[in-house]
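[recover] target loaded
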């Protein structure tokens, strides 16, 4: 097992895995507590349209995915906040239309594009040095913004009505949170792929929620579960010769059910 750590590609994969596991776990706490899991899934699948358009137009697919995910995230926020439709309805509309756009873009391409499908299912072992720097940069942006607006995001997570009364820019903070979700989705694309990225955001935080009711402890446990899932899943996939993205998500799911088994919440509910 230890000899694999001497390979450059594995070192890059482990570094990116730790960063992405931590970032997804941090954002996932807000996603779970605010019941925004469907939004995370919608943005994740919307990124397929951005990646496909990038390949079709000859643009870096990560750049096109960032642009596309941000546009979709802001579109969902604007449509739902304007009061025209409910949030889940807006997600459903953007979810379907962006996936359709991605399929249309694939149909306009000539030939089979293996790189495109690596974004669908993840390819962490194929991470390049440029991918590492991009991950470090985007992860830094997300974590710095979370640190700068930690109290405000915490406030609107638990009591948005009171935050509005006290004069906090609730709408702007909501747009900030949904922007952070979009950036996190793009960061994780190469690790677990478009299909599974929402699971990496939601599952570690859901596991942490089973074990504690304190926000800070939940954040720490979520990061722990996220990092263990990505690093452990990566090493397991190498040893078992399985798909890395799927192995990471399945390990994260196993940790969730283990947390559920020992959950104080579940025990209290059973007693009641």
């Amino acid at each position: 097992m230890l000899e694999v750590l001497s390979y450059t590609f594995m070192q890059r994969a482990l570094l990116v895995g730790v960063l992405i596991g931590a970032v997804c776990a941090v954002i996932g706490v807000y996603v779970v507590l605010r019941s925004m899991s469907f939004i995370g899934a919608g943005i994740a699948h919307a990124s397929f349209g951005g990646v496909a358009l990038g390949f079709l137009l000859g643009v870096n697919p990560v750049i096109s995915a960032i642009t596309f995910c941000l546009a979709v995230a802001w579109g969902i926020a604007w449509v739902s906040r304007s009061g025209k439709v409910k949030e889940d309805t807006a997600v459903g509309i953007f979810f379907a239309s962006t996936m359709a756009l991605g399929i249309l873009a694939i149909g306009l391409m000539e030939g089979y594009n293996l790189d495109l499908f690596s974004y669908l299912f993840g390819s962490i072992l194929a991470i390049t040095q440029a991918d590492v720097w991009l991950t470090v940069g985007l992860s830094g942006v997300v974590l710095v913004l979370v640190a700068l607006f930690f109290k405000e995001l915490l406030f609107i997570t638990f009591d948005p009505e009171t935050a509005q009364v006290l004069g906090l820019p609730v709408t702007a903070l909501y747009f900030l949170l949904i922007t952070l979700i979009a950036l996190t989705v793009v960061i994780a694309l190469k690790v677990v792929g478009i299909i599974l990225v929402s699971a990496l955001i939601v599952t570690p935080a859901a596991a942490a929620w089973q074990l504690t009711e304190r926000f800070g402890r939940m954040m720490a446990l979520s990061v722990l579960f996220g990092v263990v899932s990505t690093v452990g899943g990566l090493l397991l996939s190498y040893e078992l010769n399985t798909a890395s993205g799927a192995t990471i998500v399945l390990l994260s799911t196993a940790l969730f059910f283990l947390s559920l088994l020992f959950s104080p919440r579940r025990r209290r509910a059973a007693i009641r």
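[recover] notes: The two ends are 47 Å apart (CA to CA).
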